[in-house]
Amino acid sequence: MITLEEKEVWIRRYYPFCESYMKMALADRNKIPQLEIRLDKGSYTDHSIIHIGISELEENDEESLLRSVLFLIGHEVQHVRSTSQRAWMYGMNRGFQVILEEYADKTETKRKVFRKEADYEVYIKELAAKGFHISTNSLQQFVHFIANSLEDGRIERIRCVKRPGFKDYMIAFRGRDWKKNEVEPSFVQNLDDPRTYLLLVLNQILNLATMSIYQKGFTKICPIDSRPQILIHSLMSDIAAGVASANCRGCMECAIAICKKLAVEIIEASKLTPLEELLSEILSFLIEECGSSSFEGTDSRNEETSSGSSGVLFGKSELEGELNSSQEDEKTSEETKDEKNSINQKNHSTGDSPEKEECMDGLITAAKAASDDEIADAVRDVYIGERLNKKRKEDFIDKEKAVDDDSLPDLEDVNTHYDTQINLNEEARTYPANERMPFELKGQANVLKRKVEKIFHNMQKPILRGRRTGQLDAAMAYKLAMNQMDCFMKKGEVSEFDGCAYFLADNSGSMQGNRQENCCKALSKIEHAFQDVMPLKIVAFNADDCYSVRHQVLKNWSEKVSSNGSYNFLTHCYANGGNKDGYSIRVATEELLHRPERKKILIVLSDGLPSAYEKNDGEKDVNDAVRKARKAGISVISIFFGDDSERSTFVKMYEKNCIITEPEGIDAELVRLMKRFCFR
Q1: What does the DSSP assignment read for 534-582?
Q2: pLDDT above 90 for 110
Q3: Domains identified in the chain and CATH numbers
């Protein structure tokens, strides 16, 4: 059995493949949901995301896990394509109403009239006063289960017709569940308990809708004349019609009809047990699997429909012929109906035989064998991609080491600009960077990171579809049957961003307090959001005197600091001394010129004018350094957040690309600058 730790590794390894599989299945849609694969329970979609929980998938190897996940993705994809939001909500609301209306008609001596929504709530309160443990939410969950069972069967049938390869995944997944979820033998003693037979009936609805067969062991413990057998037989035609419906609205009408037939059983069961407790026993697996009852499906105008048949999937179908029978019944007398019901009931109550389980084993084995080649190809592609990515990463690291190895280049040219020798002390981090970012700051950084990753993802060249050569496009494979060869595609290549950024943050004494805090927090967000997509170096600069400059490295080029180097600098260091801006800019320029990237940017964050100069030539030195950097093709941008009296002089030093802001505005300006640098 695959452990949770192994599943976590599996997610990282197979997520890109699963995401591509989902996107190909929805390639013709304008809006494609985001795929989530998590170590939790249940799978569901709300149209904007497809969530797959794998914590309770009992698989022995990664190939089997991939097969199950692809089934779940295909299932949710078909919900997106075929489950109409409007029809679904109609089924939820009307099913709830029908249960109350039917129960009132069957049990109340005085006829109840339901004219508006409030009337249903009033009636629920009346039932509660009579000792029924019932609520609107609990009833809606019952409706949700019934409607979802039928809709699951319907959309899986459609997908089997539209994408024949899906049938193998479905048989393997559903068949394994059938074998595992056998009816408990203890139910024999409790068949008269409303809770027991309601549980049995609901399980049969799910099994019949999704697999067209009874739950394993059901016919052994339920004789022909037992209440669950009689009740489920009365629902057969509605289940069959719901699964065979061409659209979601038709399926919901059948679900409503079932709700009507089960109304008395559902409400009467609440006399013995609060309906919420009954739900936790009966429907816990549904809630985990399908999410909330507020399912958001597709627009009815874009609903993918099908009237074709996927055939008998699991051997002899218990529903076989039911739909035709129900259609013929409309033309016959009541006597003929009763006769047919009796015959059909006998046919559907033959019990589970050893041959049936053997048949199921054979079907599962055949389904797995049919999909083995596809799964093996997927696993091979994943491992090949993994090796290629590893090699690219190693090549990149080797390239980085060959370029600079995070070490300073020769600064001889820098020193020639000064009459006296300037000593540079570049200090690596001497403290452990283990202080984690505050929750709010980390949240803001994550939002920015997701935006950045999305923009970079959209920079890749699009997939070329409708080609006559290349890789087979699964969504267009049907064209082969029509001798149309424009069903291939050529995958786009990722357009990697060829740029790097150097940040110089003033760390002189005037930065103490609010200015340093805002500056470091802004840099921490930039570091978190951009370090995975481009090389960054972040340095805090100050000067002990005119001849001694200090650079403290918050984050080096090839360094990845999980707990964030910029934020840890704020918590461990303090601002002091003066600043020799021109010298620090020249050092940063030399490093950038030795970088292999095409686009280079230097951003200087400061609250004041250069001070560590013997003469009043600090402003001229900065201006000369900035001009040289720009002439060499480096974008130099300054962010000033100091006193108003120094603004005009600061602007003269940088001439252009000088941003004036308050300390609280550093964050927004820095984010705007980086977005403009990367994406324009």
Answers
A1: S-EEEEEEEEEETTEEEEEEEE-TT---TT-HHHHHHHH----SB--HH
A2: no
A3: 1-82 (no CATH), 84-370 (no CATH), 405-454+497-679 (3.40.50.410), 461-490 (no CATH)
